[in-house]
Specification:
It comes from Salinisphaera dokdonensis CL-ES53. The chain is of the alpha/beta class. It is 25% helix and 22% strand. The chain has helices at residues 13-16, 19-35, 107-117, 134-138, 158-167, 196-201, 231-239, and strands at 43-47, 64-70, 78-80, 92-98, 118-129, 170-179, 187-190, 207-214.
């Protein structure tokens, strides 16, 4: 499993500079080219300066894009503490969390803030590493030749993240599995697309992506029932009318 550094923001630049990490980012960008064009709206926000790439949202369907970074991220437009988003309630149409759940001490709190900032039909894309993969197990082994990615907190599994999103009134729409060695030679595949073999080995993928849409349930105000109009009221209004009503059959 991952090595945990609770409460600290880790620098992943060393791991991202490795050849395997660059290949992983290539697979991830190809997958995002399939997901991001479906995002719609006016404002789009990327949380996390993943891979020092500001062009993650370039393929998105939103008109305006901003990037929020953690701690010492110098390439971002806005820096925040990883827990309190500096965004107004319901002001964003699409949010992409680029491996941000691993960079904060409380991933569930970050998801709550995203739910608050998104509009009623806003879209959320979450990229996260799979803690059940063999790659995650190797990150716990100390090695000088192969730098390890050290997260701030344990990333949730895809099924756990599904439960979190549903509690926050999100409806998951897509699940992608991707990474090095999946399947066998690397790549990305959408679960539920008719490929049964992908379902059998999907749990072992290096990373996953979930696309969800905000689905706010309308709440009806409970109060006193409205008074029904009686026949006497209608008759009374008719008596005060002027002129004669002609009925044609």
């Amino acid at each position: 499993m991952f090595r945990f550094l609770t409460g600290k923001y880790t620098d992943s630049a060393t791991w991202l500079a490795t050849p395997k990490a660059r290949l992983f980012l290539l697979y991830e960008r190809r997958m995002l080219q399939e997901i991001l064009p479906a995002l719609c709206g006016y404002r789009g926000v990327q949380i996390g300066s993943w891979g020092n790439d500001r062009g993650v949202l370039d393929k998105a369907g939103t008109l305006c894009h901003w990037q929020l970074g953690f701690g010492e991220a110098g390439a971002s437009d806005i820096r925040f503490d990883g827990r309190h988003l500096p965004l107004a309630t319901g002001s964003v149409d699409a949010i992409v969390i680029a491996h941000g759940l691993e960079r904060v001490a409380e991933p569930h709190a970050l998801l709550r803030e995203c739910a608050r900032a998104l509009s009623a039909r806003g879209q959320l894309v979450v990229l996260a590493f799979n803690p059940l993969s063999s790659w995650a197990f190797r990150q716990g082994l100390s090695s000088r030749r192969h730098p390890a990615f050290q997260p701030c907190s344990a990333p949730p599994t895809a099924s756990r993240l599904f439960d979190w999103l549903r509690l926050l009134e999100f409806e998951p729409e897509q699940l992608w599995r991707y990474g090095l060695g999946f399947p066998f030679f690397g790549g990305a595949h959408e679960m539920g697309s008719g490929r049964r073999w992908a379902r059998c080995v999907g749990w072992s993928a290096q990373s996953y992506a979930i696309v969800a849409r905000r689905h706010v349930t309308p709440r009806t105000r409970i109060g006193r029932p409205a008074r029904r109009r009686t026949a006497q009221t209608a008759v009374g209004l008719a008596r005060h009318s002027s002129g004669r009503v002609i009925c044609r059959r």
